[in-house]
């Protein structure tokens, strides 16, 4: 499945909110004990919040064999794009799905003339930290979410040197 041609990225539909919420919850469930209750609840939004994000057209899903296997959400903040709720089904991790979602987020940002990407994660999510660093994100401070420390990450975008903008994504809807 490392071949990205088998992954479809598209905007989420309203009827998919419950599946997306469950996917996010399941993706973080194995780390629940590392979060405070409030931070875990904020990290794993419920169906109603996902429905609102879908209405705002900010939720994207990764589809493999007609199944939602990953998701990411984004929101414009000033001159940049804030990425949140990046999650991949545990059964298909380490197949490039998160990287593909992140590439799509960068492509969206570049198409809309954004100057940066930002996100937060926790230091105990080591594979996520490694992925974001490999994509060019740099640590940009810390913040506390309901008693759980988050690492703030930022990537400055350069439309002239980004390979993302130059790639054609025929398989992305």
Summarize the topology.
Layout (H helix, E strand, L loop, with lengths): L7 E4 L5 H13 L7 H7 L3 H9 L3 E6 L2 E11 L2 E9 L8 H15 L4 E6 L4 H9 L3 E8 L2 E9 L6 H4 L7
Parallel strand pairs: 4-5
Antiparallel strand pairs: 1-2, 2-3, 3-4, 5-7, 6-7
Helix pairs in contact: 1-3
Concise description?
The chain has 173 residues and is of the alpha+beta class. Helices cover 33% and strands 31% of the residues.
Model regions low in confidence, pLDDT < 50 over at least 5 residues: 165-173
The order of strands across the largest sheet is 1-2-3-4-5-7-6
Radius of gyration: 15 Å
Overall number of structural domains: 1
Mean pLDDT: 89
Assign the CATH topology: Aminopeptidase
| Count of alpha/pi helices | 6
The beta-strand count equals 7
CATH top level assignment: Alpha Beta
Main β-sheet description: 7 strands, mixed
In terms of DSSP E residues, the strand content is 25-35%
Residue share in helices? 25-40%
Shape: globular
Secondary-structure element sequence? Answer: EHHHEEEHEHEEH
Could you tell me how far the N terminus lies from the C terminus, measured between alpha carbons in angstroms? 19 Å
The fourth-level CATH homologous superfamily is Gcn5-related N-acetyltransferase (GNAT)
Summing up helix and strand content along with how strands pair, one would put the structural category as: alpha+beta
The CATH architecture: 3-Layer(aba) Sandwich
